[in-house]
Design a protein that fits this description.
By secondary structure, this protein is an alpha+beta fold. 25% of the residues lie in helices and 25% in strands. β11 and β12 form a beta hairpin. The longest helix is centred in the N-terminal third of the chain and has 20 residues. It is globular, with a radius of gyration of 18 Å.
């Protein structure tokens, strides 16, 4: 895999766990982003979802404004941590108050050929987070569980049948404002609902290796195992209309394996592919790691 981090220690941690955690933004930088978000808050509320990201909208002006705002602040700080990468797009992530704002277990979209490269999200808290307002939750090493083409919209996620087992493996990661999680788009993660009175706001910037082709995988509506592969640009992503094929070059059609993962297979993945012992699979043991 192409190296992403300037620090070998961070690279090793990322390779093993699928994410790293580090302080990234100063208090003044967080304030600047927060004030910038306030100018776009009403447009985000108008999307009308309990958990809202900028990319839930098809408003290209809103998407471009958020991307530019986040890139100006995060970009220079990412340069201090990462090597040879390109910015993809930035989003604000807002959890409104209420139980429906929880983010279920999932993996993010595939943006590159993951047999050769790793694409990432740089997720930054703009407020302190904990279980009450929706802190991040990760399953360490889960980006190794199964190589999977993850299209931009609904598909038969192979881990649907083992959600209970996966939930037992989640670890909570409360964060302070300005702290960042840099994570592989293939890691299985989730977050709690925001049960406080105030919105929980975070900023995220997606990025990918400079030498990698930027891709989109789009599932065929009639055959969910057939995936169209498109060669993309950042502008094509920013202008992408959800639920429709992108305005980009179709390079090939692929057959993807979305066969369900069984509990026994999941146990083998956890033990063999994440580098942990069998004790790690026990939910009671998770807190000790």
């Amino acid at each position: 895999m192409t190296r992403l981090f300037r620090s070998q220690a961070l690279q090793d941690e990322f390779d093993l766990y699928g994410f790293v955690r580090l302080p990234l933004l100063s208090a003044s930088q967080v304030d600047t982003l927060t004030e910038g978000y306030k100018t776009l808050a009403e447009a985000h509320r108008n999307i009308g979802l309990p958990f809202t990201t900028t990319s839930h909208s098809n408003d290209h002006e809103l998407i471009g404004a958020a991307d530019d705002m986040i890139a100006r602040i995060l970009g220079p700080e990412m340069d201090k941590v990462l090597l040879n990468y390109r910015l993809l797009f930035g989003n604000f992530l807002i959890k409104q108050s209420g139980p429906k704002s929880a983010t279920p277990l999932h993996q993010d979209t595939s943006f590159v050929d993951e047999s050769r490269y790793s694409s990432i999200s740089v997720w930054v808290s703009l407020v302190d987070t904990d279980q009450q307002n929706g802190c991040m939750r990760f399953i360490r090493g889960s980006h190794h569980f199964r190589h999977l083409l993850r299209p931009t919209h609904s598909y038969a996620w192979p881990f649907d049948g083992v959600r209970e087992e996966l939930t037992g493996l989640l670890e909570d990661f409360p964060s302070q404002r300005g702290e960042a999680f840099i994570f592989h788009h293939g890691i299985i993660h989730a977050s709690y609902a925001n049960m406080t009175a105030s919105p929980r706001v975070a900023a995220v910037m997606a990025a990918y290796p400079g030498e990698a082709d930027l891709l989109m995988y789009f599932a065929d509506e009639k055959d969910s195992n057939t995936v169209s592969k498109y060669k993309m640009t950042k502008d094509a992503y920013l202008r992408f209309v959800k639920g429709t094929p992108p305005a980009a070059d179709l390079t090939e059609k692929l057959q993807a394996d979305y066969s369900p993962v069984t509990p026994a297979q999941l146990r083998d993945m956890v033990i063999a592919r994440s580098g942990y012992t069998s004790d790690y699979y026990s939910p009671a043991a998770v807190a000790d790691h």
